[in-house]
Amino acid sequence: MAYESTRTNFFSDAEVELTVNVTAPEVLAGRVTWQLTALHRTIARGDALVKLEPDNPTSVNLRFRMPHVKEGVVHNTLLTVSFTQAGQRRAATTVETEWWVFAPDPFADRTQWLEQLELQLFDPGGATAKLFRSAGIPFAELRSVGELKTADSGLIIVAEGVKRSEMAETLVSLAAAGRNVLWFAPTVCELQIPGSEEFDEKLPKELAFRGSDRIEQLDKRLDPNAWSDPELAKSVGFQVVSRRGLTNVEVADAETGWSWVTANYGDPDAQFILCGLGLIDAWDASPTPRYLLLRLLEQLDPQREANSENVNTDSRNADETQSPSTTEEPAPKGHR
Questions:
Q1: Mean of the pLDDT values across residues 114-122?
Q2: Residue 15: enclosing H or E segment and its boundaries?
Q3: How far is residue 295's CA from residue 333's CA, in Å, rounded to a whole number?
Q4: Which among 106, 184, 306, 316 has most CB atoms closer than 10 A?
């Protein structure tokens, strides 16, 4: 048995339609049963009579509504699908899949924390600014590269789709000077590799290239496949290119390049995060983009280390009381 969709994240109260393809090595008749549970309660269930044939998958459609999730809480759910041959009582095969259900607003009751971050947004196209306003994310607009270069406080965010070739140099200079910088899905990027002969900025303590697994490192519940459909979500990759005697990081195809480039600085502590994943088109398709933004802002929070100790304590206490099969987890507030 195999699902046609690989997604693992859903919004609270979402209406879900899922197709399961069932195959068998020989002709078999029987019944497919399924059950969705959360917190030891059955949310939905169903069954269908099927006739299986070799090399000819039989499709079974599942329809149900995800449970309601309160603001600030994340549920895990368990979908169990079984095939039982006609005349038998025991299932011949069973597949269990864990899914996560998220409240639509990851920033509920977080306005004060967001204001403390002093988000500074450079967005010539205006689409990200519109998205932030609708999501209730406070920010100040940087209307020119000159304003960007002279912004003297707050966390700098550069919106997706920026085409300025000099932008990478500007942002690396800001990070080297102690500013936290977050840049999404550029159209053009010419970032000189720190440590190469032509690089004349302060060297970061760490330079890292990462793939989509970085999403699960930030939050194991998030879905790295949220950008798998290019029609629903924009994404780019990054590759190292040597051209005209220069070694640069440039934009590449999402499937062949790295998704992330990060540079961590010390004294003062600052980070430059180049993320190839776009937010705008994917925002309503899955909870992952909006919760990924939350996790990135938490990582760039100057108070993250002090807050992280509180999260670890809370997590240990939660682990002692939660069921091993289902959990109800409050989303961490302002923590890494």
A1: 96
A2: strand 15-22
A3: 10
A4: 184
Locate tokens 């029609």: which residue? 231
pLDDT at 326: 37
Two structure tokens written together for 335 = 């923590």
Element (H, E) at 33: strand 28-38
Instruction: Tell me how far apart the alpha carbons of residues 262 and 155 are, in angstroms, rounded to a whole number.
Output: 15
Are 172 and 272 in contact by the 8 Å Cβ rule? The answer is yes
Residue 199 burial class via C-beta count within 10 angstroms: exposed 0-12, middle 13-18, buried 19 and up: middle
Chain Cα centroid distance, residue 229: 14
- pLDDT exceeds 50 at position 48: yes
Q: Which of 68, 84, 91 is nearest to 10 (CA)?
A: 68
pLDDT greater than 60 at residue 321: no
Q: What is the pLDDT of residue 146?
A: 94
Q: Higher confidence at residue 318 or residue 47?
A: 47
| CATH pick for 2-102 out of 2.60.40.10, 3.40.50.720, 3.40.50.2300, 2.60.120.620 | 2.60.40.10
Q: Are the C-beta atoms of 138 and 175 separated by less than 8 Å?
A: no
Residue 318, token pair as written in the block: 């939660």
192 or 250: which leads in pLDDT? 250
The model carries a pTM of 0.85
Nearest residue to 148 via CA among 166, 127, 121: 121
317 and 272 in contact (C-beta within 8 Å)?
A: no
What is residue 232's predicted lDDT score, i.e. its pLDDT? 65
- Please tell me if the domain spanning 2-102 has the same topology as the one spanning 111-302: no
pLDDT of residue 194: 67
Q: What is the bridge-based pairing of β-strands 73-85 and 58-65?
A: unpaired
Count of beta carbons in the 10 Å neighbourhood of residue 33: 17
- Sequence spans of domains, the chain: 2-102, 111-302
Q: Residue 147's pLDDT is what?
A: 94
Q: 276: which 2 tokens?
A: 């190839």
- What the block records as the tokens of 260 is 């992330």
CATH assignment, 111-302: 3.40.50
